[in-house]
Amino acid sequence: MIASAQHAKAGEGPAQVRIVQEEGRYRLLVDGQPFHVKGAGLANGDQEELAARGGNSFRTWSTGTDREEVLAMLDRARRNGLMVAMGITVGNERHGFDYDDADAVAEQLQRIRTEVELYKDHPAVLMWVAGNELNLEYSNPAVWDAVGRIADMIHQVDPNHPVMTTVAGFDAKLIDLLKTRAGSLDLIGIQLYGDIGELPGKLRASDWTGPYIVTEWGPTGHWESPLTTWQAPIEDDASRKAQLLQERYERVIAADTKQGLGSYVFLWGDKQERTPTWYGLFLPSGETTPAVDAMQYVWTGRWPDNRAPSIRPLRLDGRVALDSVTLRPGVSCEARADAEDSDGDALSYRWTVLRESTASTIGGDREDVPPQVPLRMDEDGKGGLRFTAPEAPGNYRLFVEVHDGKGHAAYANLPFRVEAR
Question: Where is the Glycoside hydrolase family 2 catalytic domain (predicted)?
Fold first, then answer.
């Protein structure tokens, strides 16, 4: 047996995590005490900030065998009072993994066994998350046989923690496959974005009566958002996203007290996915946005003492993104960002123009930030900007960040097109 969790305090053992059903209602218990997940998917965000805002858990997408790094992460979580849903990398068919290759499947199972044995006794471990969205662009149902064997193996090696897998949306056919081929899973992770309001109906239609956690949810996805006439997705501004987070949490996630065990909002940090701001609750430079304030409110019932600025949809020459703004090369344009700060903090504005992303990835696969376009810009410091449109025809996106000088910011962007006439 591989030694594990040597960084934990002397005398501390693994948390005893159970899912129980009482009076028709599922509950998650940690060392015998109810634990409702108030969590976030952790990227490059700060654990301490998550705990300070009222979170009690975070999830990861991979674990690996870098023992010192992972144990340091778990130790830090323990100090912050956070429990960790440990993500385990499981091969995706869309990335080339062949579930008819018995040797590859066996090698994967052994690798996962090693990871579980390394960390299973750390007191910050909450559960194991075997794979992420394995149902995206897949055709071989043998993947669920492999997931079932992974769950069986983990239960044998680690009887103290539940095992789940996560799915991108779901229907009756998928749930039937999980029940028949991976029936030893303790719960499932459900990942929905703009369509999260359909969750109650999906649960009924698929006949999933077991426990679940919403393991990803957040803003309306780029694949389900309105489009310009040239098919550029239109992103909500930071304030609209915060409003939607609060509404979706209260109306859907918190409302299910029968099967739902909590959620992990996406994403505690930042990442490029269609834009640098679409999914992260933080700016790439580290500032918190109104979405962080909204999560603090739904987790604790209290707004922060100093809130992020608010912003309204960006306008370009008096038009909004839904107007599919098209410009001629080199013309002078005017943009307007209307923002306010409820605390009276002085606001500063940062404007950039990027090429529109041409990435065609799915499932959160890695993307590069599109190149910035150097343009002549004259701003008035009060949310007004005059700039010269790019000379090269093509698709672009205008971004604005509004900073309050206290570590908080709001943002908005607007796609536009340059056409020679």
Answer: 77-174
